[in-house]
Design brief:
This protein is of the alpha/beta class. Helices cover about 35% and strands about 15% of the residues. The chain folds into 4 domains: about 80-155, no CATH class; about 185-225 and about 330-385, Elongation Factor Tu (Ef-tu), domain 3, CATH 2.40.30.10; about 230-325, Up-down Bundle (NADPH-cytochrome p450 Reductase, Chain A, domain 3); about 400-544, Rossmann fold (3-Layer(aba) Sandwich), CATH 3.40.50.80. Residues about 1-10, about 30-60 and about 160-170 have low confidence and may be disordered.
């Protein structure tokens, strides 16, 4: 017996209206159901009937995110550069191109993962286009350009006023579980991990969570809200000819600049403001910088103070000046401890960022805040960012291989403490490296003790400045490639933490080479093997 065909759809949306076929089907069904027209059996809530009349491959459309896209995201790879990601997203719906503009780290600093942030922007539920901290200015500019497409499309679409529907606010979540709902934790201590003579300054930093009640699992990240260096704040105030006590939104200018706004890098909005209050050649340069151009070849060096010094003598209104700056964003760090071995505490492994531009030393705002500007007993706003697909295997007997040079060791210290506390039977192999063994062997005593006790099955080290030639973790991987392949063939999970631009990319290429050499595969087969490891969650990265 043949099935009865669904009743025809009543065409309430004109054929000339600027909608795609699937949008027109959905709108016709929605309005028909809304006003209960006779014969209009297909509604937004009847997917089976919609499927019978919609074009092949477009079934089930139920809202603005159901745009017929196939859901594949080949650009979702933190090792790809922005131009490569945007190339892969060419021709895809704007919400997918918005996603490609993100840093692809799913780090959570924006409060979402990359795809959800893109969708929120597309739905106009998130107006802030500058939340992708790893993406920086490049991402913010691309999002702004793409958002203009969204705005133009919205303006061109006729609005049918059927019912008043308000956009739901973004939920803040439980206290301490998002950047929008932080809690207060107590700073306890910092310990220098480098020995005297090191060219680096790295700290083991601890916080007390007992009063705020936060918990976490290994693999999660810890978000902190830093404050700006007061000396830098005062220099900025002097550069605009302002008064530290000037009132901005009911508070002093000094307080606002210290706690609320970013002083690095200089945002496009600041150059726009400068273009309004200068003239001649200076105005043209400011306008060019605001548009992302680099008229004098020095745009990459501008923090807020450097931008003000380039355009000396301007005296913007303090309120307008603050409005031109970006909000001071929280910073995320990989957690380097386990609650199972250290209850009520959380630790981070933090490199202090200091570098010179001309005659002035620039400071990483969060790293130097933790290194010198906060003191034991003081509190700061924090939250735990749940990891997106980065954590230990559910089966504790599965072996794990961890590659974490420098501060990339942080989550793997947490993994090892967790495996030790739970007496997990799985084998553990750590690749660690830095500049010099005598100065930069982080957690040396801990790791040697774990190796002696059997918790750490293998410890492979690489020191880039101890010999005549630089030697990195990927070089050590090649030396032990046969054993590494054997572990992978036995089901080991492979983890990488650290620099996305160089180290992580080199490690992945090395892994492909090892699979070719010791796994008897062609290059294409090895690349597919690595992609399959990622898909199955056996290759996970925490990169920045």
């Amino acid at each position: 017996m043949s099935e009865a065909l669904p009743p025809p759809i009543v065409n309430l949306v004109p054929e000339t209206a600027p909608f795609t076929d699937e949008q027109r089907f959905w709108l016709n069904g929605f309005f028909a159901g809304l006003v209960s027209l006779d014969g209009a059996a297909v509604t937004a809530l009847s997917p089976e009937q919609n499927a019978a009349v919609m074009p092949q491959g477009k079934q089930g459309s139920s809202g603005p995110l159901d745009d017929g896209d196939d859901g594949e995201a080949p650009w979702h790879d933190s090792l790809l550069a922005m131009p490569e990601r945007m190339k892969l997203a060419e021709g895809r719906p704007v919400r997918r191109r918005l996603m490609a503009a993100m840093a692809q780290q799913d780090c959570g600093q924006c409060g979402y993962n990359c795809e959800d942030y893109a969708n929120r922007i597309f739905l106009k539920e998130e107006k802030r286009l500058n939340l992708c901290v790893p993406g920086g200015k490049d991402t913010a500019r691309m999002l702004k350009s793409l958002y203009e497409e969204v705005a133009k499309a919205s303006a061109a679409t006729p609005v049918v006023k059927v019912a008043a529907a308000e956009t739901s606010p973004v939920p803040k979540g439980d206290a301490g579980r998002s950047r929008d709902n932080p809690v207060w934790a107590t700073f306890m201590s910092r310990t220098r991990l480098n020995k005297p003579g090191s060219e680096k300054e790295t700290w083991h930093v601890e916080f007390d969570l007992t009063e705020c009640g936060l918990d976490y699992v290994v693999g999660d990240s810890f978000g902190i809200f830093p404050v700006n260096d007061v000396a830098l704040v005062d220099a900025v105030i002097a550069a605009i000819g302002g008064s530290a006590d000037a009132t901005v939104a009911g508070r002093s200018l000094r307080e606002v600049l210290t706690n609320d706004v970013s002083l690095s890098p200089a945002p496009d909005g600041l150059f726009q403001l400068i273009s309004y209050i200068t003239g001649g050649d200076r105005r043209q340069k400011a306008k060019a910088l605001a548009a992302g151009e680099d008229p004098d070849g020095d745009a990459a060096t501008f923090d807020v103070l450097a931008a003000l010094q380039k355009f000396k003598g301007i005296h913007p209104d303090p309120e307008a000046f603050v409005e031109s700056l970006e909000p001071l964003q929280p910073r995320l760090y990989s957690i380097s401890s386990s609650l199972k071995s250290n209850p009520g505490r959380i630790s981070l492994t933090v490199d202090s960022v200091r570098y010179k531009v001309e005659d002035r030393t620039r400071l990483g705002v969060a790293s130097t805040f933790l290194a010198e500007r906060i003191h034991p007993g003081q509190t700061l706003r924090v939250y735990v960012q749940k990891a997106h697909a980065f954590g230990l295997p559910a089966d504790p007997s599965v072996p794990v291989i961890m590659v974490g040079p420098g501060t990339g060791i942080a989550p793997f210290r947490a993994f090892l403490h967790e495996r030790m506390a739970t007496k997990a039977p799985g084998q553990n192999w750590l690749f660690f490296g830095h500049q010099k063994r005598d100065h930069d062997f982080f957690y040396e005593d801990e790791l040697n003790a774990m190796k002696a006790s059997g918790v750490l099955t293998r410890l492979s080290l690489a020191w880039s400045r101890d010999g005549n030639q630089k030697f990195y973790v990927q070089d050590r991987m090649r030396e032990v490639g046969r054993d590494l392949w054997s572990w992978l063939a036995d089901g080991a999970h492979f983890y990488v933490c650290g620099d996305a631009k160089r180290m992580a990319k080199d490690v992945e290429l090395t892994l492909v080479d090892i699979i070719v050499q010791h796994g008897a595969r062609t290059i294409d087969e090895a690349v597919t093997f690595v992609a399959d490891l990622k898909k199955k969650g056996r290759l996970q990265m925490d990169v920045y």
